[in-house]
Design a protein that fits this description.
Elements: E1 5-8, H1 30-39, E2 42-46, E3 51-53, E4 62-67, E5 70-75, E6 81-87, E7 92-93, H2 95-99, E8 106-109, E9 113-118, H3 123-129, H4 131-157, H5 160-177, E10 185-187, H6 192-199, H7 203-215, E11 219-222, E12 225-228, H8 231-238
Antiparallel strand pairs: 1-2, 2-9, 3-8, 4-7, 4-9, 5-6, 5-8, 10-12, 11-12
Helix pairs in contact: 3-4, 5-7, 5-8, 6-7
């Protein structure tokens, strides 16, 4: 892990944020956006591999992931890691850590990332001055819990092929709502080890299963991009069927 950071005070004004134009997000009143802008203290750049929040951190801030990918994880004392979920642009980062006395998990940048930074001491201001935004923060916390529930279901009940198919379909749908998918192809920065850590599989088992699904024609990988060749079959294998992705709040 690295901790290389380049900090910028300005960044993109919230009213001009390009994420707000994505179909993944709900419209927001200008008054709410201006309040969010008043809370933002920094636009931070971190390199891939950097800790956004480290386990046990007592001063973790609240972030919105502006660009790039990250993941939330927990470590066992012997160094084994469980990846809990993956974070994409627009996701709220660090809510649990900003509310508790110390972070119970870590969050690492999977790629180079940009983050909108909100001081933890201002979280309560949402509940006092802008309860509609406070509700949205609580909703986003529940959504993250739901994503972790899905991953836990995979680890506990799906076989190796179903786990990989479910993760691929889930990330494809999330990326598509962000406008990051072209002809069923999207950037897929996960390593085999990160896949294994997310799915509760050994590295060898992950590699063999991934290769088997690729040879079966479910998807292809080239130049860091994954292309779904048979989305319907992949969804059926994952036991994840078509459902509309509802727009969500953006903080």
């Amino acid at each position: 892990m690295t901790d290389i950071a380049h900090n910028g005070r300005n960044g993109v004004p919230c009213l001009a944020c390009p994420l707000r134009l994505k179909p993944a997000f709900k419209d927001k009143a200008d008054e709410e956006v201006r309040f969010i802008q008043s809370m933002k203290v920094e636009h931070r750049h971190l390199a891939a591999g950097a800790d956004i929040i480290h386990p046990g951190q007592e001063d973790a801030e609240l972030y919105t992931l502006f660009s790039g990918w990250a993941f939330r994880y927990q470590l066992l004392p012997d160094g084994r890691r469980q990846i809990l979920n993956f974070l994409l642009p627009g996701d709220l980062v660090g809510l649990q850590a900003s509310l508790l006395s110390a972070a119970q998990h870590g969050i690492e940048a999977l790629t180079d990332v940009e983050l909108c930074v909100f001081p933890r001491k201002r979280v309560w201001d949402l509940f006092v001055h802008m309860p509609s935004l406070a509700y949205e923060v609580a909703w986003l916390g529940s959504r993250e819990e739901s994503l972790i529930d899905q991953n836990l279901t995979s680890v506990g009940q799906r076989n190796a092929g179903e786990r990989i198919a479910a993760l691929v379909i889930s990330l494809h749908r999330r990326a598509e709502a962000l406008g990051l998918v072209t002809d069923h192809s999207f950037r897929f920065p996960l390593s085999q080890q990160q896949l294994a850590d997310a799915l509760g599989l050994s590295l060898v088992h992950t590699s063999k299963t991934w290769s088997r699904l690729r040879k079966a024609g479910l998807f292809a990988m080239a130049d860091g991009r994954l292309t779904l060749l048979n989305p319907r079959l992949t969804s059926r294998m994952a036991l994840l069927y078509e459902r509309e992705v509802a727009p969500r709040p953006l903080i």
